[in-house]
Amino acid sequence: MAAPAPRRSRAALLAVLGGLAAWGGSRAFLFGGSDPEPGSPEAIERVKGLLLKADAVFFDVDSTVVKTEGIDLMGKCFGVMKEIAALTHKAMDGNVKFQDAMADRLQLMADHGMTRDGLEECVVKEGVPQWSPGVQEVVKMFHKQGTEVYLVSGGFKNMLYPLALELHIPQDKVYANEVLFDENGEYAGFDRKNPTAASGGKPKVLNMMRRKHGYKTMIMFGDGATDMDARTQGPAAAFVGYGGVTVRPNIKAGADWFIQNFQEILDVLPKGHAL
Ligand SMILES: [Mg+2]
Q: How far is ligand 1, taken at its centre, from the CA of residue 13, in Å?
């Protein structure tokens, strides 16, 4: 005779679970915070406010600051661009361990003549930046408002230093990987101790910088999943997804604010603010 009651409670339970499932999609529920739904007008307004008070902003480089992928350019220098690009895309889709993908790609280039001299020549030949439109102005405006600007990349310092120089970002604010060579200038692996040499490298760098400088508001910009990690698995207050080169559905859906053009950021930052 107790049958109707459990049926009713089961229905009630299902209703509650259904509600939880619907709710579970929101970051507010998952992370227990009060941040608005990624991409919502409230989330975008929140990011705009944070951009004006950020202590530090962190830019991914490949397909964000520049339209290119540094390692593909290196591949081009050594005649293995197609093979390298295929490995890069495999790594981006998250199917390969980051370290393994990097070791494979570097070894492939070493097998095709990547020595210290060869890499230096490559940087000169392919290192001319193909900027994403507006990014140089964005960096300039952040500098003007007193926000520190960092480059954080899974790419290589050799390819990034010329970009950093043009953006007036000092080398100690460039976090990226390092190719190693032996005393004869032959390829000798890469620096595996580097935070960016492993999965989860970007959140790690942001955590390091927060500890070192006591930053309260940090914002990450990027086009890929490893960039969004700085927000979901790290201390970034916001993640701005950039789709000006490649639009990735997971980034478009998960970014607090997904932009197609850096002009959208310039429209928020104060113009002509004196130093
Ligand atoms: Mg990228």
A: 44
